[in-house]
Amino acid sequence: xxxxxxxxxxxxxxxxxxxxxxxxxxxxxxxxxxxxxxxxxxxxxxxxxxxxxxxxxxxxxxxxxxxxxxxxxxxxxxxxxxxxxxxxxxxxxxxxxxxxxxxxxxxxxxxxxxxxxxxxxxxxxxxxxxxxxxxxxxxxxxxxxxxxxxxxxxxxxxxxxxxxxxxxxxxxxxxxxxxxxxxxxxxxxxxxxxxxxxxxxxxxxxxxxxxxxxxxxxxxxxxxxxxxxxxxxxxxxxxxxxxxxxxxxxxxxxxxxxxxxxxxxxxxxxxxxxxxxxxxxxxxxxxxxxxxxxxxxxxxxxxxxxxxxxxxxxxxxxxxxxxxxxxxxxxxxxxxxxxxxxxxxxxxxxxxxxxxxxxxxxxxxxxxxxxxxxxxxxxxxxxxxxxxxxxxxxxxxxxxxxxxxxxxxxxxxxxxxxxxxxxxxxxxxxxxxxxxxxxxxxxxxxxxxxxxxxxxxxxxxxxxxxxxxxxxxxxxxxxxxxxxxxxxxxxxxxxxxxxxxxxxxxxxxxxxxxxxxxxxxxxxxxxxxxxxxxxxxxxxxxxxxxxxxxxxxxxxxxxxxxxxxxxx
Length: 568
Hints:
2 domains, Rossmann fold, about 575 residues, mainly alpha, 27 helices, two-stranded antiparallel ribbon, about 60% helix
């Protein structure tokens, strides 16, 4: 009797209790999602100087909404402002107008995005497989997967995929034209490349619509909206030059395995499967229960043994359509490299969506089959019931407890600034101050001090030819100046770029530092030359000026006034 009652509670629904079960399992899954978001929120406000790793790159320049005169003639700020999607920019601009600072908004947005995503994810699952327990399993898996990566918590343009694309799928399956078109428009405004996925799905569905006129209109209007929103994106020109492409991309240090965007590699498995930028399935199967989703096609072959599969609706066809379009776009992006940017962006999210939905269905189907097996033979029913209860408890435990066994969860990549005295110092300097440094900590200055930096590792993305050329030139010039034996190249550098301060790490003039600094890892030939000179006892001119021109010294950094250095 116990296993029969549990079976009814978990799997079997009727008209009287189906709505109650949907509300119950949805509410429970939402609680888990909110709990994971609160863990991230706690990290976000754990320190005065905390910022999400990718958020600082996208939002630092948005301080201009509050103070139009900051970051003047800033190459990095101008570049990221030019490549940020209009919808994303508008959202932050509007929030700034009502007094919400960009940094604060970037910390609050993720919890809202996760809640809305879950509110669409659960009913999306119900459209495909109307078993509330499966919806719960899939939604909790979805929430956990979101917290295993920093995609949604970054509050960057890609974070909005999880709301707008899932909403699009939900309204598409329900054939709600207006909400679907709104979702498509929002995708185009916040993350334009994903319009190619949307368009591909609509084209595939044109071939199998049954209600001819209405459905053709649905797909036709959706494709028209997608095309209109893609045109500005496709034909937009930038003063920072075209995107890197073809053979030039393969020779670029920034796209090498040791570069800022590790793309190319001699390891074919890493390159084609698991690389975050070039791979087909990066992180798609990182949660152990995601793998269960791969069993769904096998379960569908045996409906007699797994009778719950009969409840799967015809809307499940959306899953193979997503796979076909995503994989096709993946290879097109490789062929047109880097015109459509990173190929992995077309599969890393969509294929994960597919396996998570499939895993929820597969686990519910397997649990149902186990319960049916346990109730078949009375003589062995007690033993079978114990096994069935044990199996169900194990699955439930893995689902709920798994994150607690991870070394890092949630994986939010919030960065705590390590130089508050330096941030405070620079914030008090004139708004047109320019700071030069090879230290990674300098990446935090634009967001915490609202002052311009000459270069920064996090900002050195090599996607556009013009921008990459300038960053490369700036970096090599700074390296040559910082490690020059003579003062003349340093003075020439200061005069050429108008730098106001140098930030030098205390260990910057040791061979060990050259081995770990990402700029030197990327440019191995430069690193070898400088390391050899340091080992031979060469003293850089900037080091000799350290005591005379220092205006701030902390445990790890020394700030030098460039004007003092220029005087010699």
